[in-house]
TrEMBL record:
Catalyzes the oxidation of glucose 6-phosphate to 6-phosphogluconolactone. It comes from [Mycobacterium] crassicus. This is Glucose-6-phosphate 1-dehydrogenase. Residues 185-456 form the Glucose-6-phosphate dehydrogenase C-terminal domain. Substrate binds at residues 172, 176, 210, 229, 320. Pathway: Carbohydrate degradation; pentose phosphate pathway; D-ribulose 5-phosphate from D-glucose 6-phosphate (oxidative stage): step 1/3.
Length: 468
């Protein structure tokens, strides 16, 4: 929900509209918004390529078709009519004068920076100098810094020209189902809300597995690694939503306050409880530096020292070249006591609650039943696509939220700084990198990390087996 007074954008300006993200995500998101009649402003694309607006429209059409999105010419024509294009060098003040001539300086603009992070601050400073920020919002892609110091520096430069409520830090996991609405799921269901703490929950596992390697992103990825690429941002943002207290109201800061409280209650990660791995063959990926020690897999243990979660171990794992593409959150309950009336002496296994984020968002409740004197798992499953309809795509949701000024789906600065603080010891003392075979669940040491706890479970896959 937009905060009172947040105005809908009158113009969307996309820096980097000829780049990869636009091709893979943004055009499709805009097209889907157009189809749902949720787009009602012009779009100005800005990039360095010297192309015409007709070329841009062709590229947009091709990009949308390539995503497999059903293509409706009438919808696309409406979108195409909104597009205009300006090429130039983002470090050149003249570009901003041209933008100002096209847009005027008093429009409620959304500037979306799909640009390398090193350009975030220079672009925003240039927009400021040209007087373009008075009524604007600025959305920046991840990563926001590469450690706590650089995140603070970047923030200081942005805040020199923007108010916090003008900055939207994009983390596309916050636009996914069921992440985007998890507070509803958690707190509107007594069944879940009542068992969502240390009294009932013994452990939390979060898995983000990808069944492909680094492919053509070698030089980007090699300077980042799994911890910075997906844990500091995506997985910790998800964890905060899973662990937070209920927001006290509908405002943007009500939700972000609760997320920030979770992070503030988390001690820095302990390198002794972190395992890094790298799939065999990574060193040969083009762009990977000789002697690189970058990890493509990371598993770690975290804790939240607050009333709700104290003593509940939290295990996260993320990796490339694993057996499946699947992201899930899994909560294990405590075991029930031995029950004298049961024929078998063995205590019943734990229940598990699984929230699947990708692919096919859904929820599973894993219970036990007796089958001829033997405990058997039984599952209550909901595929949200099946039960609720096709989910809104993450970038579609986030672009719309950015345009209407709904900041709940964006990461606030304090959370970002806290997450860098939490992972800092792991960046400072990275430890050895174990080799694992592509198609395995990472190095053996990742199993050792959970020794004495719940072992890593095979993720819950959509019916019909693994999907993309
Ligand atoms: C990105 C990472 O932020 O998220 C990629 O840079 C990763 O390495 C991607 O593959 C995963 O996103 P999704 O939406 O495909 O699960």
């Amino acid at each position: 929900m937009a905060e009172r007074g947040a105005a809908t954008s009158e113009l969307l300006v996309i820096f980097g509209i000829t780049g990869d993200l636009a091709r893979k995500m943004t055009f499709r998101a805009l097209y889907r918004l157009e189809r749902r009649n949720l787009l009602d402003c012009p779009i100005l694309g800005v990039a360095s390529d010297d192309i015409s607006v007709e070329d841009l429209v062709d590229r947009a059409g091709e990009a949308i078709r390539k995503t497999g999105e059903p293509f409706d010419d009438a919808v696309f024509d409406r979108l195409a009519k909104r597009l205009s294009y300006l090429h130039g060098d983002v470090n050149d003040a003249a570009l901003y004068d041209q933008i100002a001539q096209r847009t005027g300086t008093d429009r409620q603009c959304l500037y979306y920076l799909e640009m390398p992070p090193s350009l975030f601050a220079p672009i925003v400073e240039n927009l400021g100098r040209a007087g373009l920020l008075t009524r604007a919002r600025v959305a920046v892609e991840k990563p926001f810094g590469h450690d706590l110091t650089s995140a603070r520096e970047l923030n200081a430069r942005l805040r020199a020209v923007l108010r916090e409520e003008q900055i939207l830090r994009v983390d596309h996991f916050l636009g996914k189902e069921p992440v985007a609405d998890v507070e509803g799921l958690r707190f509107a269901n007594t069944t879940l809300a009542e068992l969502w703490d240390r009294r009932s929950i013994a452990e939390i596992h979060i898995t983000m597995a990808e069944n492909f390697g680094v492919e053509d992103r070698g030089s980007f990825y090699d300077s980042v690694g799994a911890l910075r690429d997906v844990v500091q941002n995506h997985l910790l943002q998800v964890l905060a939503l899973i662990a937070m207290e209920p927001p006290v109201g509908p405002g943007d800061d009500d939700l972000n306050d609760k997320k920030a409280e979770v992070f503030r209650a988390m001690p820095p990660a302990d390198p002794a409880h972190c395992v890094r791995g790298r799939y065999r063959g990574y060193a040969d990926v083009p762009g990977v530096a000789d002697g690189s020690q970058t990890e493509t897999f990371v598993a770690l243990r975290l804790q939240i020292e607050n009333w709700r979660w104290s003593g509940v171990p939290i295990f996260l794992r993320a990796g490339k070249a694993l057996p499946q593409r699947v992201t899930e959150v899994r909560l294990f309950t405590h075991r029930v006591p031995a029950l004298a009336f049961m024929p078998q002496r063995e205590r019943a296994p734990r229940n598990q609650i699984v929230l699947r984020i990708d692919p096919d968002p859904g929820m599973r409740l894993q219970l036990v039943a007796q089958d001829d004197g033997v405990w058997r798992d039984v599952h209550l499953d909901s595929s949200f696509t099946h039960d609720l309809g096709e989910p809104i795509q993450p970038y579609e949701r986030l672009l719309h939220a950015a345009m209407v000024g709904d900041r709940r789906l964006f990461a606030r600065e304090d959370s970002i700084e806290e997450t860098w603080r939490i992972v800092a010891p792991l960046l400072e003392h990275p430890g050895v990198v174990h080799t694992y075979e592509p198609g395995s669940w990472g190095p053996d040491a990742a199993q050792a990390l959970v020794r004495g706890h719940r072992s890593w479970q095979d993720p819950w896959l959509p019916e019909g087996g693994p999907t993309q």
